[in-house]
Write a structure and sequence with these properties.
This protein is α/β, with parallel strands linked by helices. The chain has four helices and seven strands; from the N terminus they run ααββββαβαββ. It has a five-stranded mixed β-sheet, covered by helices on one side.
């Protein structure tokens, strides 16, 4: 009886055949994170571009002060005063006469914070009248928003010039 090369190989190994292919490799236990990283980078770029657009929509030039940044407060009411004296609640222009009734209707309680964003070139009288109207309406958390990095109030002695 003539043996083929396949039969001769099987006879030499004691009758045990080796399986080749997938059974020899173990299960793949690593997760391919490349697609996850790609998706996360795209989301990061989208959020970085859209985050500045989520601020209040009324363009005002805030005055600069040396005060630090405030903690984020959930759901404040943003009130903006432009340099020409126009008043906005959010993005909607509001006349001064209807400011208090409209804010009272918007706020369930008087402890809801109100952020006043006044343009640096706005009249002091307008800003003072708005803040007084908020105070007399019963609002207690009135915050005046400014930009950081303004002139020092004299706390740092190294900036003083003189003999």
């Amino acid at each position: 009886m003539a043996l083929s090369s396949h039969d001769a190989f099987a006879a030499a190994s004691g009758g045990k055949r080796r399986r080749r292919g997938r059974a020899r490799r173990g299960a793949l236990s690593e997760i391919n994170v490349t697609p996850l990283v790609d998706v996360m980078l795209v989301l990061l770029i989208i959020f970085m571009i859209s985050a500045p657009l989520l601020t209040a929509g009324v363009p005002v030039e805030l005055p600069k002060t040396e005060a630090g940044a405030m903690q984020d407060v959930p759901d404040p009411i943003t009130l903006s005063i432009r340099s020409d004296g126009r008043i906005y609640i959010g993005d909607d222009e509001t006349p001064f006469a209807s400011l208090s009734p409209r804010l009272t209707a918007m706020a369930d309680d008087r402890t809801r914070p109100i952020y006043v964003r006044a343009d640096g070139k706005a009249d002091y009288e307008t800003v003072a009248r708005v803040m007084a109207a908020l105070s007399t309406s019963g609002f207690t958390a009135i915050n005046l928003i400014t930009d950081t990095g303004g002139p020092s109030s004299g706390g740092d002695k190294s900036e003083e010039a003189g003999p």
